[in-house]
Amino acid sequence: MRILLHDTQSNFEKFSARVDKLYAGVAEAKEEIMMVKTLFQGEHEILNGEMVDLGELFIYYSMLCHRDGSIRLSPSSYIYTHISTHLDASSPLATLTW
């Protein structure tokens, strides 16, 4: 009987060690999933902001253009300032003559 109890206790200890390892792995995976979720949320917010800015730029540009493609605003206007701050040197709009 004593051998049976000792064997059962040994098996429970092994099982307990395995459960502890499994729980640690699950906890680590949960932390990584939460971190990835946070990163995706941040990137989603950035992408949404860029899309809104691009939409605003398109609307402003379409309001400014004559049918012949010439631009109708002066460098002192609000729209000129707004558009020029959103353009980088590689943008096709950056090459326009204001």
Description:
Helices cover 73% and strands 0% of the residues. It is built from two helices and no strands. It has helices at residues 2-64, 78-86. α1 packs across α2 (78-86). It is rod-shaped. The termini are far apart. The mean pLDDT is 78.
Keywords:
mainly alpha; rod-shaped; single chain; 73% helix; 98 residues; 2 helices
Low-confidence stretches: none
The total beta strand count reads: 0
Overall average residue pLDDT:
78
| Shape summary | rod-shaped
Total DSSP helices: 2
Q: Measured on Cα atoms, how large is the radius of gyration? A: 31 Å
Summarize, please:
By secondary structure, this protein is mostly helical. It has helices at residues 2-64, 78-86.
Describe the SSE topology:
Layout: H1 2-64, H2 78-86
Helix pairs in contact: 1-2
